[in-house]
Amino acid sequence: MKIKVNQSLHGYSNGHQLLACSMELNTLIKKVLLFQTDLSGSNISKGFESYITGYPIEENSVYAFSRTWYADEMKRPGCVWTHTFLIDFSDLSLISELDIFLELFRRPIFGNYSEYNNSLDIELSDLQKSELSVELTSKDSFLIYLYENPDKTVILPTSTPESFENTVISVWSDQWPRLRRNFYFCTGALSLKEWDNREFDLQIIPKNSVVNIEKQSKQPLIMILSDINTINWGIIFSKYEKRFIRKFLWTYGADLEGKRSNYLPLLILFNAIYSEEVLLSDIFNLFNTYFPSKKEAKALKYNLLGTNSSLRFRFSERELVEGIIAYNDVSFIDLHELGLENRLLGLLERQEITLFEFANIVEQASPSLVKQDIWGSVTADTQGIIGILEINPDLSRRIISQFPSLALNSNIWGCSLKLQNTILKTLLDLGVSDWKPYIDVILESKSEVIFEAKKIVGAEVVMISLNFLNEYGSYLLLKKWIKHILFDNKSLFHKWLSDNLSKLSVGFVSELFNHFSFKELDLLNLPVKNWIKFYSELKPNISGERFFLISSALFYIGIKNNYKDSEWLVAETFPDVFSYVGSENVNLKIWNSIPKDIEPDQSDLLISFFDLYFGSKKKKKIDPPRYNDFQEILVRTLVNKHIKFNWGLQSFLNCFKSEKEFSQVIVYCQKFPKGKYLLTR
Predict the structure, then answer these.
(1) 213-237, pLDDT tens digit by residue?
(2) Are 46 and 36 in contact (CB under 8 A)?
(3) Does the pTM of the predicted model rise above 0.85?
């Protein structure tokens, strides 16, 4: 592959003028070339008979690289020859080594200029080779002065300018294309070299011109070769292959303005990247120092820190992600394009970090780096997340905010109370409106946090708990919580009972007998028909002492006669109580809870005909039953209550399921008038 390079020749012919050119030149480029190709000062200085000059002509997108010779063969003093190569900006990026042009410069023979009317076709492969021999200390000085002082005009006084040509060309070749085409230099500035108020970056001048040129320049910096700064840039160029450095500068310089001020930062970053002793945070510091704007060095930043980081040869993906997150100020880069959240999730999915480590990273991360809704993308098992919360309860607010459903897992309500309390408050902050599923799982877990839930949520917790108890029974609930909702919240309990009377389960009713005394059951104010219904449902599933307890409790409620149709509850339960107390092992505590009425009502006004005419008018004394004759005591109580409350005959007859109990009732009724009257009905 070849590139085409145009050329021109300027010299004296009735004044300094264009003598030959391989291309048509417009007025502007003619003007620039005419000025820049003339002698750079008023008089030639010894040692400066030949020098090179480089400068861009931006309007024409060409870079002018020329060599000037003093034309001492001319009679007129101050005449020069200048051979200029006009290199297209686009071709400048294809040329690796610019020293090839040094060999192509030709000093003209007077009157023979035709060869300069032809462009040169140069083999691209020839432009990749360099025969330059450069003294590193000298080059190091140039680098320091040019790039540590990017706003200065660097001026090197010398008597041997030609000895620095190779160094200047080497410095120029090391620049990336955009910087190359903005670099102004001259190795033979006999006076201050400038164009359009733009001073040349590098000017090599005669020693005797220092004072004059220093006065002319607006920002002069006199270069002293022995004055080497503490940073030895030559070492970098000796430490790494030139092509390696060049590739880095060219790759990432393309994303930067072609300013000298960008060279040193790139070189420093290059050295940092490949120096094992430099930390990742040091590289971040360099970005903040040299390229703090998101718009600067974007390609380099994303190449180093992005998904397919070129730093992976030194740092693992985990180190990169954690390093970015841990760094205090990453405002130098557009975080969105780093894909940190996806990369963090990738580390978790590839098991390069544990779920606990993931949680810690997310917790430490600024919201601008990692949003908390990242938890919504986590596919880790619930148990693993719960394990994290156990270790670090402070994470619960963030995690539960993203996973409210996590609070529906019973395992989480087996964690520490501190964690559970935090979760409750988080749910409250999230504005949960339906607490039932959360309270249900807390109840199922038998967690004592239920007491805190009542404080936070209020009466709704009691109502939900009563529904839970009604549906599932007591075996899933804390005993002390059951007592709390039944006894410490009486008004709520009674309201719930009234509202759910038709929905009460057998299990729930059975539970009432575990916690309430006979008197307390009576005070529940349940209709008799409901008690009878509950009893009929309970009977098939109870026996023994439990059977005695429930039948006795309901017999108690009926005998107290506080409700309409109480007699029918007595009729339903009397046979069972009577049968049970006929056994040998009667629970005296239960027995003693049953109201006894063993004294007959002897205040009869209506006396039988037989007693009136033939019997004694004196009331017969009835012997009391033995204290342990439970059935007799029960019979007398039944009869006396029926007489006292004037209950119906049918309910009285329904009390007897066997001949024994009925016979015992007849015997007792025969002992006093009202009893006899009861039989005659």
Answers:
(1) 999 999 999 998 865 554 556 677 7
(2) no
(3) no
**Which of helix, strand or coil describes residue 353?**
coil
408 half-sphere exposure, CB direction, 13 A CA radius: 8
Distance between CA atoms of residues 490 and 500, nearest Å? 15
Give the count of beta carbons closer than 10 Å to the beta carbon of residue 74.
Answer: 15
Residue type, 368: S
Q: How far apart are CA 387 and CA 356, in angstroms?
A: 8
Token pair recorded at residue 579: 């049968």
Q: Which residues of 559-596 are buried (b: 16+ CB within 10 A; e: fewer)?
A: bbbebebbbbbbbbbbbbbbbbbeeeeeeeebbebbee
403 within 8 A of 375, measured Cβ to Cβ:
yes
Among 115-129, 183-197, 219-233, top mean pLDDT goes to 183-197
pLDDT at 68 over 90: yes
Q: Which two tokens stand for residue 243?
A: 């092509």
pLDDT in tens, 25-52: 999 999 999 999 999 887 888 999 999 9
DSSP-assigned states of every residue in 150-181: TTSEEEEEES-GGGGHHHHHHHHHHS-HHHHT
Neighbour tally for 98: CB within 10 Å:
24
- CA dist 487 to 25, 581, 586, 668, Å? 106, 31, 29, 42
For residue 455, the Cα-to-chain-centroid distance in whole angstroms is 31
Strands 62-70 and 80-88: antiparallel
C-alpha span between 139 and 171 (Å, rounded)? 7
Dihedral (Cα; 449, 451, 456, 458), 10-degree rounding: 140
Q: Can you tell me the distance from the alpha carbon of 531 to that of 509, in angstroms, rounded to the nearest whole number?
A: 9
pLDDT of residue 228: 56
